[in-house]
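Re: zinc ion structure - here you go.
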Amino acid sequence: MRTNWASATAIALLVSLSTSAAHAEEVTAWRLFISDHADPKVTVVDAIDGEKLDTFEIKGPASLHRSESGRTVFAVQGSAGVVAGIASGISFEDHGEHGDIDVEAPKLAGVEITGKKPSHFVEHDGDFAVFFDGEGVARIISEKSVLEGKPDFRQVKTDAPQHGVAVAYGSHVLLSEPNREKPDELPVGISVADKAGAPIDGVHACPDLHGEASSGNILAFACATGLLVVSHGDGSPAIRHLPYADSLPDGKTTTLIGGRGLQYFLGNYGADKVVLIDPTIESDAFRLINLPTRSVHFAIDPVRAKFAYVFTEDGQLHQLDVVKGEIANSLKLTDPYSMDGHWSDPRPRVAVAGDKIVVTDPLQGVLHVVDATSFEKTGDIAVEGKPFNIVSVGGSGQTHEGE
Amino acid sequence: MSRTLKLAAVIGAITSMPIAPSVAAAENLRVVASFSIIADFAKNVGGDRVDIVTLVGPNGDAHVYEPKPADAATVGSADVVLVNGLQFEGFLQRLVEASATKAPIVELTKGGEVLRNAEEEGHHDQDQAAEGGEKHAAAEEGHEEGHHHHGESDPHAWQSVHNAELYVKNIADAFCAADAAGCDTYRANAESYGQQLEALEAEIKAAVAEIPEDKRTIITSHDAYGYFEHEYGIKFLAPEGVSTESEASASDVAALIKQIRQDKASAIFVENVTNPRLIEQIASETGLKVGGELYSDALSDKNGPAATYLEMMRHNITTIKGAILGS
Ligand SMILES: [Zn+2]
Ligand SMILES: [Zn+2]
């Protein structure tokens, strides 16, 4: 085990605050997991001091996902046909009034799920569903199994290969419905399978289904016509269609992310706009925000619920005030990254790690670090190769001597 | 509030304060109430001088409410924000942060006697604190050799009418602080509403007195009636705790069913803010008939039987009494 993971900052709290605890330390730890655009590897960096903690060799270039708990990071290796679980090494135990943090070395969890063309990865309530486009099959595994190193997955089939998605929704599974007439095109809706895998009602239409996210107790899929909004119904998921407002220009959402702390969704809408969505209200559910140029990537701020960030092709990071529905600040970080060319060309990605916003700059081989409070650049972290996808894991908690 | 009472209140204000500015405040006080019951109190105290926006509306469950960006905007432009406190509004801190409001956040349970859940809370939920776990800023409670005794406070203080009077007093204080010109009106309104609360309390006590003592154990969905029990002597059992956030486990339900059989519960009720399924299941397993719907953490909509606090409390005790005596 390496020792520098303990570079997590430690601040001893006044012992007099508690009567019986001999000693409690407040610890903050944040880690960045970064994949490479060309090489099969995941680099782990301590976000607090910028030190490299480890590099994991995997089988192909990966897109990364972190679990809600932050205990697991997944490397979805589309071309290699593998999804690998990585234990982040950071975990929390909630004690209501405070939380305990446990910090260990990150490691490959030893669980790999294989199949043809893994694509969309969705977590719901601690269950992960990976969709394998080449087979039209979803494989579902729990976080517990992954961390125990047990490849205990179950499998749910759709009728045909498709660029699809599945969500393990309690005892039901939501599955994209392939386009039968045009198998190369996006799915046309969502069907619901019960515990036994049997469809429980018809297909909920969602033409050009692409993009899924959760915010609080609501799940949404993006369609050409609007959103499919899923909430807990009486015994089975309740699904309704929220059409795009008439006031919106022509366009659709194909990437969706969900707010944390505040319940909302943020999606692209055309190339140079994003849309803020509150699916719980009837009027003004959609607020459109114009960007100066085309959008490259966007992320929500899980700590400062008021903000989300959008990176645009002119090399700027924008701070989006989701309450006011406007861009509050902009900051030039990189050379231009044109959205002309292939959708999967190396371009920046954004992650938030505590008080820092981190942006990958694949062509320069660096991560740009921005202070989330001042919205000013505070430094760079060099990463070998072409740092591309990025996720962060961490937080603050207490450690106790003798526990 | 009846028209006469309101008029009386206004006249009272004028006569007792002859030098008050003759022009009413140009703009009404912008008040945000976290949930429907507080909004009703605020309307009774504020009358025509306040505009109230309610975050968690009729039949809504504040324990699990998810605040929206629009709520943050509402709170951001408020003059006064009225909340229950005692962790009833789990969403409050993040909402206030996102709103960047300068308005006072007034906890209406301040100064009251707080009941604590007797059960030891042994939640060691893994993984709840994810990214941005900033809620653990300080060690407020000590560790006792690895055990965590928390004794959650019960936030449902409004279920005692006596406490409702405290809410009303705190609202009047908050309105006076924000709008001194209207203070006499607020005080007079609070006073007359307080009289209605006193009458209500007497009604509830009289109704309870008609229920034989050995028939005063009943079942609801969640532990929302601790203050009612404490004040009026009806024992409430529930499968869920003081928050609806965590669902009852199978063993909680089994233990409750056992207890119902031992304690000879007289009646069982669904609640307006929770799914009736679990209560229906317990009813069928114990042979109790569901005695109706109680209003716990929210009012009904304006056409329902509990559109105001006074109506809610009357509806609840009438429903309880009817189910027990009819059984
Ligand atoms: Zn896709
Ligand atoms: Zn409650």
